[in-house]
């Protein structure tokens, strides 16, 4: 257990004596009942089997922050990092601020923020490896870096910057509520270190002494309805009508006098000049996701056309592909494309050799379900490809079985590929346009894939290409409708969504309109190809133009999708929270100065020895049994 010093000051000890029955969200503060199996279990802190004697051990605890008292001394940050032995580029708790007005009427609001140990922790539901657990003890949401494989999905879904993805180690870690201190009656290290009495801690809804407020919102704090966080605020000093973020995000907070709350709004920091922004797009860390989603959607679209349109509905021109010399080369190309996409995605993980843990949270995580669906699709594609080499009744039966598996995996994988981006903390993604783009790409890119292979291996593929061009046109129109409605909704919206449209039309303005122009051109070319019998040199020219244009358009649209998203994160005034500064430091070389707290990403190290040990310790049957247990709850 944690050792309490003999001279520990009185203010460092927890002082809750009574508590309410329910919190403001209607959930019980007592997380277990007498006789519950979750009670009287050790947290095994430092391998100690002792059980803490805190009388409020099974009640939901939380932080209280009084902005009036915070002087931004960073003592809480320092105490937290020292307690958890964090490197300079990782901070479980950090202090940011928003400011408003001009001299002499200048106001600053400091905000100290860590994990809020929410009632509805989206990090726990999103994590595919089940690295997160919400404990009955203190309501703490704890994360195990040894289980994490570094996908970073929890950093996407959390609105508060709480999970920290270490670009060196390749795993996530975060605030652990200092449960070792709570077990012996001490407050968390950050609270005990606070100089201005801005931070307090205790059973949630118990307002600490000398405080009159316990609000769930403060300027700069994301919508508490996303997760029901266990933090309460006090801020009584008058602020300016507009409070601005001191970072690179084009957002300010405007006071709505009717509701008495500050709402996030657009702050046009960069003017209205349209730029290409290609250096930011091409340097994006999400290129692996771009390659995976585009390649997998192309292959899924082509597979669906072959199996559904060709086999089930017997569409003559597509069904003829299965009887032609282009069929096997097409399947091989699809298999290779899918394999390369999966490889790139896996190597994007912080710990690629832990890939098998992606199946651990099928009950809750859309990412885990996507991994399972895509894996089933790849297995079905592989079996369908292999048995298609043989020509007898039994192999035809087996290829049908694998085709069915592939279609089930396609339906599941593609749906959850879309669902995993419906993140409330990322309004730019949280729109049905994500589905229209993904499924539209399946039709357009899948058609293009079949057409390219058919034009190489078939002497007469004009009728096939006309049908494929029409299918591609349908996909492009679906995508165009979604993009139009999405842009309109963002432009007329507020907060991070409106800001995303502003960045789209300024920082990436020229690239955005190039993508839109290529989309319109591709629809026209697809309709021309589908309505005419283009032959000769001119037909070849139109086909090549359409191919290049569609690929460039798809890449630009997808990289914008990833690079542009603006999360509902806390205002980041300091280095590890300010993405604008991080990018600048890495590009200019300032990241080499350790005191700035910025490091280059270098966790993509494939440890062969650890991989072999993993394979020895976890057989395929064990992994499947574990997945079954998670799904069935047994």
Write structural notes for this entry.
- The chain is an alpha+beta fold.
- The chain folds into 2 domains: 49-266, Alpha-Beta Plaits, CATH 3.30.70; 278-572, Formate dehydrogenase/DMSO reductase fold, CATH 1.20.1630.
- 45% of the residues lie in helices and 9% in strands.
- It has 19 helices and 12 strands.
- The mean pLDDT is 90.
Feature tags:
634 residues, alpha+beta, Alpha-Beta Plaits, Formate dehydrogenase/DMSO reductase fold, 3-stranded mixed beta sheet, 19 helices, 12 strands, globular
Q: Give the strand content.
A: 5-15%
Largest sheet: 5 strands, antiparallel
Number of H- or I-type helical stretches:
19
Architecture per CATH nomenclature, i.e. the level-2 architecture of the largest domain: Up-down Bundle
Instruction: Give the CA-based shape.
Output: globular
Question: Could you tell me the number of beta strands?
Answer: 12
Radius of gyration: 27 Å
Distance separating the two termini: 32 Å
Mean pLDDT: 90
What ranges have pLDDT less than 50 throughout 5 or more consecutive residues? none
Could you give a quick summary of the protein structure above?
The chain is an alpha+beta fold. The chain contains 19 helices and 12 strands. The protein folds into 2 domains: 49-266, Alpha-Beta Plaits; 278-572, Formate dehydrogenase/DMSO reductase fold (Up-down Bundle), CATH 1.20.1630.
């Amino acid at each position: 257990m944690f050792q309490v010093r003999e001279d520990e000051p009185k203010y460092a000890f927890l002082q809750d004596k009574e508590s309410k029955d329910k919190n403001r969200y209607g959930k019980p503060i007592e997380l277990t009942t007498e006789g519950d199996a979750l009670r009287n279990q050790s947290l095994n802190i430092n391998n100690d089997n002792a059980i803490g004697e805190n009388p409020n051990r099974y009640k939901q605890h939380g932080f209280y922050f009084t902005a009036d008292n915070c002087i931004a001394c960073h003592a809480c940050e320092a105490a937290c990092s020292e307690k958890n032995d964090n490197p300079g580029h990782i901070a479980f708790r950090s202090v940011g601020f928003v400011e408003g007005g001009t001299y002499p009427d200048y106001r600053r609001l400091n905000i100290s923020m860590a994990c809020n140990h929410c009632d509805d922790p989206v990090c726990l539901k999103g994590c595919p490896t089940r690295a997160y657990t919400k404990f009955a003890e203190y309501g703490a949401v704890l994360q195990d870096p040894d289980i994490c494989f570094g996908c970073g999905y929890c950093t996407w879904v959390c609105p508060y910057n709480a999970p920290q993805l270490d670009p060196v180690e390749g795993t996530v870690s975060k605030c652990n509520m200092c449960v070792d201190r709570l077990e012996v009656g001490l407050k968390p290290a950050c609270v005990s270190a606070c100089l201005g009495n801005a931070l307090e801690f205790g059973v949630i809804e118990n307002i600490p002494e000398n405080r009159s407020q316990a609000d769930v919102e403060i300027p700069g704090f994301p919508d508490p309805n996303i997760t029901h966080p266990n933090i309460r605020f006090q801020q009584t000093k008058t602020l300016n009508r507009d409070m601005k973020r001191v970072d690179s995000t084009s957002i300010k907070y405007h006071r709505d006098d009717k509701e008495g709350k500050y709402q996030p709004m657009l702050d046009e920091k960069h003017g209205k000049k349209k730029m290409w922004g290609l250096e930011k797009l091409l340097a994006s860390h999400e290129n692996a996701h771009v390659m995976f989603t585009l390649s997998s959607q192309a292959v899924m679209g082509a597979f669906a056309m072959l199996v559904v349109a060709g086999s089930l509905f017997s569409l003559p021109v597509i069904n003829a592909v299965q009887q032609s010399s282009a069929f096997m080369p097409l399947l091989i190309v699809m298999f290779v494309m899918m394999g390369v996409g999966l490889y790139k995605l896996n190597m994007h993980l912080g710990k690629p050799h832990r890939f098998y843990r992606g199946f651990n949270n099928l009950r809750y995580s859309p990412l885990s379900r996507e991994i399972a669906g895509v894996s089933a699709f790849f297995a079905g594609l592989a079996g369908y490809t292999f048995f298609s080499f043989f020509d007898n009744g039994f192999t035809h039966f087996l290829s049908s079985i694998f085709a069915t598996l592939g279609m089930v995996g396609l339906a599941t994988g593609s749906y959850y590929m879309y669902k995993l981006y419906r993140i409330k903390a990322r309004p730019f993604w949280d729109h049905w346009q994500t589905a229209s783009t993904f499924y539209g790409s399946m039709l357009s890119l899948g058609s293009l894939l079949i057409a390219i292979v058919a034009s190489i291996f078939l002497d007469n593929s004009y009728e096939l290409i006309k049908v494929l061009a029409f299918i591609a046109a349908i996909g492009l129109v679906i995508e165009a409708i979604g993009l139009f409605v999405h842009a309109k909704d963002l432009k007329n919206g507020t907060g991070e969504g409106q800001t995303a449209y502003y960045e789209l039309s300024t920082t990436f303005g020229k690239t955005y309109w190039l993508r839109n122009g290529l989309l319109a051109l591709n629809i026209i070319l697809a309709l021309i190809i589908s309505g005419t019998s283009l032959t000769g040199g001119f037909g070849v020219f139109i086909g090549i133009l359409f191919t290049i244009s569609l690929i460039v358009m798809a890449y630009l649209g997808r990289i914008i999708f990833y690079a542009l998203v603006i999360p509902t994160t806390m205002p980041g005034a300091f280095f590890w929270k300010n993405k604008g500064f991080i990018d600048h430091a890495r590009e200019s070389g300032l990241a080499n100065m350790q005191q700035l707290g910025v490091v280059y990403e270098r966790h993509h190290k494939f440890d062969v020895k650890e991989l072999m040990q993993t394979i020895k310790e976890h057989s395929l049957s064990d992994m499947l049994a574990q997945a079954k247990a998670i799904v069935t709850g047994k």
